[in-house]
Write a structure and sequence with these properties.
The structure is a single chain. The chain is an alpha+beta fold. The chain has helices at about 65-70, 125-140, 165-175, 205-210, 255-270, and strands at about 40-45, 45-50, 55-60, 85-95, 105-110, 115-120, 140-150, 155-160, 180-185, 185-190, 195, 220-230, 240-245, 250-255, 275-285, 290-295. The strands form 2 sheets. Strands 1, 2, 3, 4, 5, 6, 7 and 8 form an 8-stranded mixed β-sheet that branches. Strands 9, 10, 11, 12, 13, 14, 15 and 16 form an 8-stranded mixed β-sheet that branches. β15 and β16 form a beta hairpin. The two termini are about 30 Å apart. This is HIRAN domain-containing protein.
């Protein structure tokens, strides 16, 4: 679970944002006197856009919406483990006019052509997610993601979302490029999510020694240029590889597998007349000075259930 770190307007009824997330161990529900708002249904009037789902985020305030949750899961009782929790689809509705929290993000569950309100994002997360969800809302869209319901029976129902980071929400929303971090004139700087090993540095130690960490410094940050070369030997001899340069000097290349991952992206940018660069760092090892690139996590990544409604 994270602690972080896309017509008509849906009618919104504010409710208190409370911090009583009920997953993974919903408490016993031993009294009929618990406060429970009547289910609030809203028609689906926005385009629903699937957000990246590789994360887990709690929902809070579910104790106020037990009747709604009971309706959403048709009274089913979830088991005690993940695979026994009830799969549902959540819709994230930004509420900038919420009287309790101007950063609020309401959580509804999708029921055919309508949704029902079941809680809120925790306030510290809502503040990070809401700006991008508002951008989507202004464009007639709402984000949705897979979710699961736990509890039922003699326990409160609780909800948690399969939802990635706010940055991934921006990517799904089209407001952030998953590959390009910045562009200056004709030079592209790639995103720096993933550490990628360079090979062949042993043949370029004279050049790399200029960028080696000195004294108590562990690493030296550099900017690497990416272009193409041919693999000189081995199983993939003659195939393209991404060549790594520092200050226009060759210092190694990416493996065939990493070239397959990033080659299309680098080639496409170069074909547009752009110079492709990335952040990198050097480190001293028993084998000499080595280079690690910082690259986009996965340029071909898409949500597991990418779709719109």
């Amino acid at each position: 679970m994270w602690s972080w770190f896309r017509k008509k307007k849906v009618t919104i009824t504010p409710a208190p944002v409370v911090s009583d997330a009920r997953w993974p161990s919903p408490p016993a529900c031993n009294t009929a006197d618990d406060a429970d708002d009547p289910p609030l249904f809203s028609p689906v009037v926005h385009q629903l856009v699937q957000l990246y789902d590789d994360g887990r985020v709690s929902v809070v305030g579910e104790s106020y919406y037990q009747d709604a949750l009971r309706v959403a899961v048709r009274g089913a009782v979830a088991g005690d483990d993940f695979h026994s929790h009830i799969p549902v689809t959540a819709v994230l509705v930004p509420e900038p006019d919420n009287e309790w929290d101007e950063n609020a993000v309401r959580i509804d569950l999708l029921l055919g052509q309508q949704t029902v309100k079941v809680g809120y994002l925790p306030s510290e997360l809502a503040e990070e997610y809401q700006p991008d969800l508002l951008t989507m809302h202004r464009n007639g869209k709402l984000g949705m993601c897979p979710a699961r319901v736990a509890g039922g029976g003699d326990k409160y129902y609780g909800v948690y979302l399969h939802l990635a980071s706010p940055r991934d929400t921006r990517i799904a929303n089209g407001t952030e490029d998953p590959v390009i971090a910045s562009q200056t004139d004709r030079t592209i700087l790639l995103q720096n999510d993933y550490s990628c090993t360079v090979t062949g540095e042993q043949d370029h130690q004279e050049i790399l020694s200029r960028y080696a960490p000195k004294g108590n410094i562990d690493t030296v940050s550099v900017i690497a240029n990416l272009t193409f070369c041919k693999i000189a030997k081995g199983k993939y001899q003659g195939e393209d590889a991404i060549e790594v340069q520092i200050d226009r000097h060759r210092v190694g290349q990416l493996t065939y597998a990493m070239t397959k991952r990033y080659g299309e992206i680098v080639r496409g940018l170069m074909d547009r007349g752009l110079e492709v660069t990335c952040e990198a760092f050097t480190v001293n090892t028993p084998k000499g000075v080595q280079v690690e690139l910082l690259m986009p996590a996965d340029p071909h990544r898409v949500p597991r259930h990418r779709m719109t409604r």
